[in-house]
Amino acid sequence: MIRINCPYCGLRGHDEFSYIGDATKQRPASPADATAAEWHDFVYIRDNPRGPHQEIWQHIQGCRAFVRVLRNTLTHEVLATGLPQDDLLAGASGPAKTEEAKTGEAS
Amino acid sequence: MAEYSAFNLLRNAISGHKDWRRAWRDPEPKKQYDVIIVGAGGHGLASAFYLAKNHGIRNIAVLEKGYLGGGNTGRNTTIVRSNYMLEENAHFYEKSLQLWEQLSQELNFNVMFSQRGVTNLAHSDNQMDAFARRGNTMRMNGIDAELLDRAQVRREMPYLDFSDNARFPIYGGLKQPRGGTARHDAVAWGLARGADRLGVDIIQNCEVIGFKQKGNRITAVETSRGEIGCERIGFAVAGHTGHLAAKLGMKLPIESHVLQAFVSEPLKTLIDTVVTYGAGHFYVSQSDKGGLVFGGDIDMYNSYAQRGNTPMIEHVVSAGLAMIPSLSRLRILRHWGGIMDMSMDGSPIIGKSPIDNLYLNCGWCYGGFKATPGSGWVFAHTIANDQPHAINAGLTLDRFERGRMVDERGAGPYPNRH
């Protein structure tokens, strides 16, 4: 079982979550103006890294919130978790960030 | 060559089995090859075998990071079938099935191909309609298919849940009588021996570290056993295609996922065919050693770890129990995981790449094993002629850009749903 630290509910088994996918893919900012190549990149192309991977899970059997997870695809180790908009690669360690989010929500 | 024959078995028995030749050599890599295939699994070995046999290219190396057949070739549930409906898939998988039918003779190596039939169960009127359509399409493409009603399924597979308690009652099924199973290790060994006898160098423990490029061509491969030059190069590395492509700065419409498979303790003959669940994802057959070989869904999250997780084991087993309640007292003997190259439409990519002399053979999702000989046959053709064969012409990399998806399941661009 992979254990994911939900920002709202704390540490839970991954069977409570539903996997959404690669968190780094951004929908073209201006859909009407986006080129076919930009849509192709967004819809089909993946970095598919062997190592740290940023992904979105939904806590479907808990608070139903979307959670951003930095996970090593080679070992399944969860390296950091946060809110969907969080930049998990930027310095701050995951658990600390998660704590902030948790207190923020509680207050 | 018929090296494995009754006469030779007798002769070697008399001489104490000391004179058998090695099945394949263990050569040092040469400086330069006409073709390098990366990956000595079924697909890579079949590609080398057919390049040498059908196209007369003998100066070939197959590079393997680990040991031959140690990846998905030895990790699948050994099912072979060609019950596809879409034009781009149907002819390709049917060619593969026809190659399976002659593979043991072609290789003089028993791959234990057993055409015991493959039946997909239907659990609603709508599913029966969909299966009738699929079966008719298959027959129009010259592929065998039989629509079975509930009574026929019951006669063939009395162990399925036909009680009033069945959560998803069985309405019937679609059977492909020519489908079946093969011995997966024997396929790798037979192809390795066949390719080796035609002069192909199979180089194990040789990891590809990087590439030397000149213009839009790959001139050499940097490996853990030194630099090896090549005229043309093909990737047949399944779940690790993205990893190799990244070394070339290339991104693909592929995600790597882990799929688990299981073997139960051995038991007397129970299941003499291959049967799949239509209301969930479960497929099962019985090996010659007696163990039930089965599997279900992938674990759903990106993974390069060759091991899965417990929730999926429970999910797969509960689907199996809903289909065959008598399995409840069986114990699982072992289980393992393999890395699937899940493509964005669920169909494989076999063809040219953006790099002039690089050819891709990837995106096999769950279905690579059955395609082994067909994949090698068309990949060899593609590499030798620098253009795809008619039967893999629709399975190109650029189909995603052009909006010509081959989405057999109609699941959309979500790799974990195919």
Describe, in plain words, how this protein is organized in 3D:
The complex is a heterodimer of chains A (107) and B (418). With 107 residues, chain A is α+β, with helices and mostly antiparallel strands. Chain A is 20% helix and 30% strand. Chain A has two helices and six strands, in the order E-E-E-H-E-E-E-H. In chain A, the strands form two sheets. Chain A has a four-stranded antiparallel beta sheet. Chain A has a two-stranded antiparallel ribbon with strand order 1-2. The radius of gyration of chain A is 15 Å and the shape is globular. In chain B, helix 2 (42-55) packs parallel to helix 6. Chain B has two domains: 25-110 and 183-254 and 345-417, 3-Layer(bba) Sandwich (FAD/NAD(P)-binding domain), CATH 3.50.50; 125-179 and 256-342, D-Amino Acid Oxidase, Chain A, domain 2.
Low-pLDDT sequence parts of chain B: none
Residue share in helices of chain A? 10-25%
How many structural domains can be distinguished in the coordinates of chain A? 1
Distance between the termini of chain A: 31 Å
What is the strand and helix layout of this fold?
The complex is a heterodimer of chains A (107) and B (418).
Chain A: E1 3-6, E2 10-13, E3 18-22, H1 36-43, E4 52-58, E5 66-72, E6 78-82, H2 94-106
Antiparallel strand pairs in A: 1-2, 3-4, 4-5, 5-6
Chain B: H1 6-14, E1 32-38, H2 42-55, E2 60-63, E3 79-80, H3 87-107, E4 118-122, H4 125-140, E5 146-149, H5 150-156, E6 172-176, E7 180-181, H6 184-197, E8 201-203, E9 208-214, E10 217-223, E11 226-235, H7 241-247, E12 254-264, E13 274-276, E14 283-286, E15 292-302, H8 310-323, E16 332-343, E17 349-352, E18 358-362, H9 372-385
Parallel strand pairs in B: 1-2, 1-11, 2-8, 4-13, 11-18
Antiparallel strand pairs in B: 3-7, 4-6, 5-6, 9-10, 10-11, 12-15, 12-16, 13-14, 14-15, 17-18
Helix pairs in contact in B: 2-6, 2-9, 3-9
Question: Which key phrases capture this entry?
Answer:
heterodimer, A: about 110 residues, alpha+beta, Folate-binding fold, two-stranded antiparallel ribbon, 2 helices, about 20% helix, disordered C terminus, B: about 425 residues, alpha/beta, FAD/NAD(P)-binding domain, D-Amino Acid Oxidase, Chain A, domain 2, eight-stranded mixed beta sheet, 18 strands, about 30% helix, globular
